[in-house]
Specification:
By secondary structure, the protein is an alpha/beta fold. It contains twelve helices and 29 strands. Strand 16 and strand 17 form a beta hairpin.
Length: 578
């Protein structure tokens, strides 16, 4: 699976190396200049919040915003009142107009993304007719946007949202990409002379093409394509690369630009988020920017608006970043250690922790929970208690807590505490074995439900997502499974088995809810399992509702809420026991 499972839904941002008038700083140090914005976030903002956002950006030296997309050509939706035939607005407000109005008042610049389309990740560069049609769609959208919003002085340029990666491709594929870029790029340059076109490809150090091979590809493509800015995603936030690996990849792309289209600009898209969709520490962001400073003139990022703005995350991230801009240094004071940590087992699967909060000169933004020496959860809500659920019965666990601030400074560990979960009641008979079931959403053809029997065949997969026992779904929408037990049965336990593998964007569900029915029409809720805290490892995990009393039914339904704003859920088995 490609990096797109994370980034297709994630916002991006523009960052530039510059001497900023808003704050005193040394021009040799990297600093953000702008931010990509996902339309859904902007749609939630009031007019005041739009104005405030550009105020926060200006005070931090940012004067650019990129709206990541304005249309979805698969769903036939737009984020503005479009005049394109067959398209309907799916936002409450005209996000494009609100962004441009606020930018006009602030003196900022806005780049408009054209369309996204989920089919890009399966069609990719190999489907020439599909790409040709998408190029036509892009041009129609650009005409519509320009007609409606050309009076805004802040409309600065365009962004093409199809993200190209370093999977294996052929010269014929490159020609298909060139044809797309030429059709759209030439049209945009004729429609809006002088307004630059931005693309933002990405790489995964574990994917097919090496830096040298990717350099060859981009030399070929860029030499033939009217693209003005290449903003390369650094991939550190989604674990596709480390800071140490960035110079080799950025050097390769810089060489490709110099050898093929030396007048175009080369920027970086620095990732400001973690795999858990949380803000990265300011020190990590700055270090990544410094690693690519010899190669780029500007910085793209995902995203000030989503992960640094005080309107979205803890304001301490914003304050710490402003302190960096003013001083040129990342503050280094460690928080004090959390104290008085205690633990108690509540049942065979749950342990409750409580502790005394730590303090910090700027302020604590969160705590990491360590179980048996490994981080299993991060809390960012200021609480000093934690329920560790879905644990193994009859097991002793040792816990410690470590606080952290927005800069990335960590406290010493708290005292250690241990607790033991009691032995469970055993329910030996799986009455769902080999029973039929239905799903409201089919599995992906790449990770299918082979034969329609995988969820009740008793076969568990390994922790390799390619294991055929697993079936996968790439969605943010709620879906469900319904098992027919054949007759009304007494139900004591319901559980489902899920995979976590964060680098390829496979996440545990946020929530799995169970209900039962005698007639497959009227369902009664049984209970809900919330996402546990297994840490970041590649692993499989049971979601279990146990010791049920008074529960009877023929049909058992599990409703699944995916665990990320973008990514996959993988399941291999559902059991109903008595």
């Amino acid at each position: 699976m490609r990096h797109q499972a994370i980034r297709r839904m994630a916002g991006l941002a523009i960052i530039v190396l510059s001497c900023l008038s808003a704050v005193a700083q040394d021009c040799s140090r990297p600093a953000l200049r702008g931010s990509f914005l996902q339309p859904a976030l902007g749609d939630r903002w009031t007019l005041k919040q739009w104005r405030d956002e550009f105020h926060y950006m200006r005070d931090a030296g940012l004067d650019q915003m990129v709206i990541q997309w304005t249309a979805d050509s698969k769903e036939k939706t737009t984020i503005y009142p479009s005049g394109v035939a067959g398209y309907a607005q799916n936002t409450e407000h005209d996000v494009v107009d609100r962004a441009l109005d606020a930018a006009d008042a602030s003196g900022a610049q806005v780049y408009l993304g054209l369309q996204i389309n989920d089919d890009w990740w399966t069609k990719y560069l190999t489907d020439k007719p599909w790409l040709k049609n998408e190029a036509k769609v892009a041009n129609v959208l650009a005409d519509d946007l320009w007609k409606r919003y050309r009076h805004h002085g802040s409309l600065t340029g365009w962004y093409l949202g199809f993200e190209v990666d370093n999977v294996e491709s052929t010269p014929a594929d490159w020609d298909n990409l060139v044809a797309f870029y030429r059709t759209v790029g030439n049209h945009l340059h004729k429609l809006t002379p002088g307004k630059p076109i931005v693309i933002s490809p990405f790489f995964n150090t574990k994917a097919d093409l090496s830096p040298t091979q990717w350099q060859t590809m981009w030399e070929y493509v860029l030499k033939r394509s009217p693209i003005d800015v290449l903003a390369l995603q650094d991939g550190v936030g989604v674990a596709h690369a480390t800071k140490a690996e960035l110079p080799e990849w950025f050097s390769a792309v810089r060489n490709a630009i110099q050898n093929s289209r030396p007048h175009m600009q080369f920027w970086v898209d620095t990732e400001t988020f973690t795999l858990d969709s949380e803000p990265r520490p300011i020190r990590a962001i700055v270090n990544d920017m410094c690693a690519v400073r010899p190669y780029v003139s500007s910085y793209l990022s995902f995203s000030f608006n989503h992960y640094l703005s005080p309107q979205q995350v803890n304001p301490l991230y914003y304050q710490t970043y402003l302190d960096y801009l003013a001083s040129g240094k990342i503050e280094h004071m460690r928080p004090t250690a959390p104290a008085d940590l205690t633990s108690v087992a509540l049942d065979s699967e749950t342990i409750r922790l409580t502790w005394t909060a730590s303090t910090d000169n700027f302020g604590v933004v969160g705590c990491n929970i360590l179980r048996d020496g490994r981080r299993v959860a991060s809390l960012r809500d200021g609480t000093t208690n934690f329920l560790d659920s879905q644990l193994n019965p009859g097991t002793t666990y040792t816990y410690q807590v470590r606080a952290f601030d927005a800069a990335g400074n960590e406290s010493a560990l708290s005292n250690a505490t241990t607790a033991t979960t009691p032995e469970p009641h055993l329910y030996p008979t799986n009455i769902a074995l080999d029973k039929p079931y239905t799903a409201t959403m089919p599995a992906s053809p790449s990770y299918p439900d082979t034969g329609g029997v995988e969820l009740t065949d008793g076969i568990l997969g390994s922790t390799d997502f390619a294991d055929p026992a697993w079936q996968g779904r790439a969605t943010t929408k709620i879906y469900s499974f319904t098992i027919d037990l054949g007759a009304v049965q007494v139900i004591k336990e319901v559980r489902s088995h899920w995979l976590q593998d964060k680098p390829p964007a496979i996440f545990l569900p946020k929530q799995v809810s169970c209900s039962v029915s005698d007639d497959n029409v009227n369902f009664t809720a049984v209970g809900t399992v919330n996402k546990p805290s297994p840490g970041d490892d590649n692993l499989s995990w049971w979601y279990t509702l146990t010791d049920l009393t008074g529960i009877n039914g023929r049909y058992v339904q599990l409703q699944v809420k995916p665990g990320s704003n973008a990514g996959w859920t993988f399941i291999d088995e559902i059991e109903v026991r008595q």
